[in-house]
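Most newcomers find our protein records easier to grasp once they have seen one. A learned vocabulary of local backbone shapes supplies the integers on the structure line. An example says more than a description, so a record of this kind follows:
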Amino acid sequence: MGFLDNLENSLNNLERQEERNPGEAGRRRAAERSRAVSVQPWAEKLKNSDYTKELFNKSAAAGHRIRAKIYIAWLEQCLRLEARGRVLELKPTPDGIVAEFAAGDGSRIVRKVDLNADPGLLLDEWLSGEQPPPSKSAEEVEANV
């Protein structure tokens, strides 16, 4: 089956599911809308705050310091920073803004973000974890064979 056939089947399945449970689809849309409305003020603060502007400037300086490019992207209302396989996401929630990133041991760290604080502290905490292990060189691979 081709891509278009799969897409058509998926759309037909969604339509049938909504026909069977029309109330469920309405409740789901209402819940998504209420969450979006409750998150909107924090999303605007994140996009327009001095904290974010300072975060951009300090991430550029941190990238020079570690000799790596820090990629910055807005994904809907989420601000995502990536460097050397490490990801930092700032997400607006109904209660404020949270930062999520992985620690050196792989565990998820979630921190509440204070827009009046120094973004350099968050950057340092994010980048201070263990770096991913370097890839083996061809000589090391051949020596182990």
